[in-house]
Design brief:
about 60 residues, mainly alpha
Length: about 60
């Protein structure tokens, strides 16, 4: 009986996710994903530039 309850729960959750995804068109999803990728790229660049700056500030990198 436990397996049947699990699959009922699983199918219900997949249905909710599918309905939520169907709210927006493919073009709208593309814009949202593009914005998210841009934000992630900015955060990664900020992290590594800050790390590089802190290393240079502590004297870890010697210029020639």
């Amino acid at each position: 009986m436990g397996a049947i309850k699990f699959w009922d729960w699983f199918k219900y959750r997949v249905g909710i996710i599918t309905a939520a995804l169907a709210v927006l068109s493919l073009n709208e999803w593309a814009v949202i994903i593009g914005i998210l990728c841009t934000v992630v790229t900015c955060l990664v660049n900020w992290y590594y530039e800050r790390k590089k700056y802190l290393i240079a500030l502590s004297g870890g990198v010697r210029g020639k």
